[in-house]
Write a structure and sequence with these properties.
The complex is a heterodimer. Chain A is of the alpha/beta class. Chain A is built from 11 helices and 10 strands. Chain A has 2 domains: about 180 residues, NAD(P)-binding Rossmann-like Domain (Rossmann fold); about 100 residues, N-(1-d-carboxylethyl)-l-norvaline Dehydrogenase, domain 2, CATH 1.10.1040. In chain A, the strands form 2 sheets. In chain A, strands 3-2-1-4-5-6-7-8 form an 8-stranded mixed sheet. Chain A has a two-stranded antiparallel ribbon with strand order 9-10. Chain B is mostly helical. Chain B has a single domain, classed as ACP-like (Non-ribosomal Peptide Synthetase Peptidyl Carrier Protein, Chain A).
């Protein structure tokens, strides 16, 4: 049985851990906060129950939970075949984390970087094993979304690519390979879309509901860009746009001030109960949140 | 009790989709409304509002297709814990 370490028990890490546990892998879920780990297990239990209702397989919930070990220390990764890293989209934190993994993991462990924008070659440069570093951009919610971007870095070996493809197949994923570039394909386009949608609200051109209605009704998107921002996390959107801005040094990626203010104010979207919309105890969007900055 | 349960469930769905007119026996999945987020919201609403825990084997699409079926699901759990 393959053992996979999952670093970071936020939105993405929790989904990755659930997906792995549901597909017969042993999971070691690590986060700095025991409280976040408790919340993650409760979330996994809740979502695993829902799997069949949502069109997925029937899941043996107790088996899934028993496949997951949680902890706050990287030394739990001593037998990991893979580590999937999903910590905050923050280069300074990632830069400090990977040398720790080099010390904790066996020599053969592959590092799978689940980043939405940071170039894989850059992450590999702060490890002792760049040929064993590869990017996989999972989509949210992880157990329900089949397709992922697979991003080899400059030094990633063919063997690493092959082993990672095998892991993704075992997880029920379809890997779409793209070249290593900040934001890859998905986020380079999506983050600019969300950023521009935020500018429309910031400038008073349209409300959040109106922007989303245009995308749903005119383009047939199941969800508009600002509903998507609330789902991904407004703070995550901001960090991703900032990464694009820093990497390309192109003003077209300058973050909308509204995203920055909402992030500072704690309006992170669904995960904090309020973002561009407010959410009730059942997770329903009840109305657009009061704007933090008037146009 | 049954009519009250139906009314509460119908009220929850209507508050989410105020412009739709949904009969008690209309399949909400076939109307194209339901996505994964709303299905989870429905389960959370039913469990919290009626103070029940839906057994995992009852978390099937067929039990959530119509307001009537959801009300029957609630009734079954209430009977199961002797609250009927």
């Amino acid at each position: 049985m393959t053992t996979v370490g999952v670093l970071g028990a936020g939105v993405m890490g929790t989904g990755v851990a659930q997906n792995l546990a549901q597909t017969g892998h042993r999971v070691v879920l690590i986060d700095l906060s025991p409280h976040i780990l408790e919340h993650a297990l409760a979330q996994i239990e809740r979502e695993a129950r829902m799997s069949r209702l949502l069109g997925g397989p029937a899941v043996d919930v107790p088996s899934v939970l028993s496949a997951i070990t949680t902890g706050t220390e990287p030394d739990l990764l001593a037998e990991a075949d893979f580590v999937i890293e999903n910590i905050t989209e923050d280069w300074d934190r990632k830069r400090r984390l990977y040398p720790t993994l080099d010390r904790a993991c066996p020599p053969g462990t592959i590092y799978v970087v689940n980043t939405s924008a940071i170039p894989i070659t850059k992450v590999a440069s702060v490890t002792s094993r760049p040929e064993q570093v590869i990017g996989v951009h999972f989509m949210n919610p992880v157990p329900m979304k089949e397709a992922v971007e697979l991003i080899p870095g400059y030094h990633t070996s063919a063997r690493t690519i092959q082993r990672t493809r095998a892991l993704l197949t075992a997880m029920g994923k379809k890997a779409i390979e793209v070249k290593d570039s900040c934001g890859f394909v998905s986020n380079r386009v999506l983050m600019l879309t969300v950023n521009e949608a935020a500018y429309l609200v910031y400038e008073g051109v349209a409300s959040a509901e109106t922007v989303d209605e245009v995308f749903r009704s005119c383009f047939g998107h199941p969800m508009g860009p600002l509903e998507t921002a609330d789902l991904i996390g407004v703070d995550t959107i901001l960090y991703s746009v900032e990464v694009l801005y820093q990497e390309f040094a192109d003003s077209k990626y300058r973050p909308c001030p509204l995203l920055r203010q909402m992030t500072d104010a704690g309006l992170h979207g669904r995960k904090t109960g309020k973002g561009f919309y407010s959410y009730d105890e059942y997770g329903r969007a009840i109305r657009a949140a009061d704007r933090a900055v008037a146009a | 009790m049954d009519n009250d349960v139906r009314a509460q469930i119908h009220g929850f769905i209507a508050s989410r989709y105020p412009h739709a007119s949904i009969g008690d026996d209309e399949d909400i999945f076939s109307l194209g409304f339901v996505n994964s987020l709303f299905a989870m919201e429905l389960v959370m609403f039913i469990e919290k509002n009626f103070n029940i825990r839906i057994p995992n084997e009852e978390l099937r699409i067929d039990n959530f297709r119509t307001t009537t079926r959801m009300a029957e699901l609630v009734e079954r759990q209430a009977v199961a814990v002797g609250q009927g």
